[in-house]
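Collaboration report, partner site 2.

Our partner group contributed sequences for two proteins of shared interest, and the home lab folded both. The records are reproduced in the order in which they were received, starting with the first partner submission.
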Amino acid sequence: MSEHKRSQLFTAEDWWAVWFGFLVIIAALTGVVTSVPKLGKWVDNPLDVFLIIKDGVASGNIFGALVVLWLGLGVLTAFGVWAMGGKPWRYFFGYSAVFAFAVVSYSISQQQQIRAYGLEYAFWGLLIGLLISNTVGTPGWLLAGAKTEMFIKTGLVLLGAEILFDKILKLGPPGLFVAWLVAPTVLILMYIFGLRWLKMTSKSLVMVIAAETSVCGVSAAIATAAACKAKKEELTLAVGIGLIFTVLMMIAMPLFIKAVGMDIIIGAAWIGGTIDSTGAVIAAGSMLGAQAEKVAAVVKMVQNILIGVVAFAVAVYWVTSVERDANAARPSAMEIWRRMPKFIVGFIGASLIFSFVLMPLFGAEFVENRILGAVTTNCRGWLFCLAFVSIGLESNFRDLASQLVGGKPIWLYIVGQSLNLVLTLLAAWLAFGGILFPRAF
């Protein structure tokens, strides 16, 4: 291995995201880490989020587990910061404050009524960060711990572990038809519409909004932003627009489906293919019944598989077309590999290992409960929450306002989501209405 390649493996943030993600997976698999704390729900007393409830009775609290999580993630990531040439102690100090804000964000999102409105931790983390950065300002020591991309990319590697290929088989061809046909179509049409009709100048902003709308919301926006090197302000804007409309759609779509007497399975597939957030999809599907909730959730999870594919395709397109120098030679395969975000390798690798190695070896119950349910999914949630707090701390409304000139990003989202709603409803009717495939529900 050349010195350059060896150096990249241990000094590039993308590769450290892969190492962090797989270290968490190995720790879960070997039993070194058996659980990652998850905050509970609360109604009137915010401190109830820290209680461990068994059979309706408080049997302890998670304060100790949160301290271990704070130290574990802090030490692990601080080592990576040191290896990448940063100052680990300065990072750890800022990271500790970011972690505290993440706990507050998660706690707010667990309030019963707030959960019903679908306002998840991403919204509150982003809001807290924006409030700080746009009022008192974000001090340098705090910014040192706001490692947005490191948190995001590590979380995406862990997300890959949740994309199990057996999920594809649960709905079979109808689910694939709805989840995989419409999303790429909408993404491409939105990208063309944003550049040619709306005349938006930032290709990366158009691409991130298109991915956020067409694929699966926040996770797709994050992955695509990394692939096309979008600015943090562009990612913040895309996610903010998406979160607002997600809440509206989560409430409106089930009401509309009931009002018009739509077949609930067709409606569930429609919800799964259009509402951006997985949590909001499950909440909306549950309003139609248990069976509809299951169909909606699985359609969304099957659609989530496109995250890695889309991020890879966008990275290749950016290298070979958008960033290509017209006077330079066509980029070689090695140049594409060099410039492609390496977290995609971790994302796809984790998905393949969990689907075709760990599941056959240890069984679905062990993998889904002992590894995914107890460790990696919760850890990924904390990393994403840290990332959204960091995005807010690094952004300000002046930068966001500059991206909203003429309201073009909002129009791009509205037009794109309208197209998404129409095409996905058509696909859901064809796939689950007994037109192209036999009805399975």
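Second partner submission, folded after the first:
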Amino acid sequence: MRASSSPRKGCPARVGPAIVGACLFFAPVSQPGVAFAQEASRTDQEGNAGEDFFRPPANLFQTMTQYKSTLGSGSTSGSIVNVPSETLKLRYDHSIELAPQWILALRSDLPTIAKNPVSSSNPNGEYEIGIGDADTQAAIIHNLSQRWAIGGGARLIAPTGGDTFGSGKWQVMPVIGARVALWEINSSSYLEPIVRYDVSFAGDPTKKNISNLQIGPALNIGLPDRWFITFYPSTDIRINYGDPITGQTGRLFLPFDFRIGRKLDSNSALSFEIGVPIIKDYPVYTIKTQTRFNLTF
């Protein structure tokens, strides 16, 4: 959704995507702030790199490369080692205006993974490449006021990755969140806490059952010259209620996670993210890096 920092009187029936977004984000209230609102909306869009859950572009195509190291079983029985993996994920988002201030946001992801874990299909830990678990997501987003928005939806994850590259389980992931604009900083800054719950419900009965709470209290700060920094942009804070994983000693995983990036032009952005554990009783990763290129249209 597109934000502005002042009310608009009304929205024309057919206008460009940026103006439609600004109209969606605010209910009509008064005329005197129109010029200021238009200027703030343009500024806000310059800072929107396509990652804002509550202001999705009409269409987004993303390529994401990720390096992640996790704990896994070594080739020696009973040993625990760091297992690195590299992921190339292709993502497509599409948003549909349902009514004023209401948007349906759709997302699909297809990951390709390279890793060398020891498993029943790869007993020697050879380096292999394959398709991971694909997912689709739908969310309904509603703007409550000029500053506030809320949303909720669900993600469905299919076990397309098999024994080596996936969980072996069908998963559903309900998600809820809110957004508050931080105009006190600038028009590109916002706080966007999101909570998800990942739970498995079918699939390979020999695989671990999945049940964990995922939290991402994203704080985005707009910087000069179209730069931005986001603290906790991913839902990497985890509390595990499911079967224990390799190396687990408790339920909590708490990392320090941040992303820095820049809008290259009005339709593209490049960003880099890094996450390192602070508390890893539930060891989601030992290090994570991501590079993302977003193209909006």
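Feedback sent to the partner group on the second submission included the following. Confidence is low (pLDDT under 50) at residues 1-45. The chain has three helices and 14 strands.
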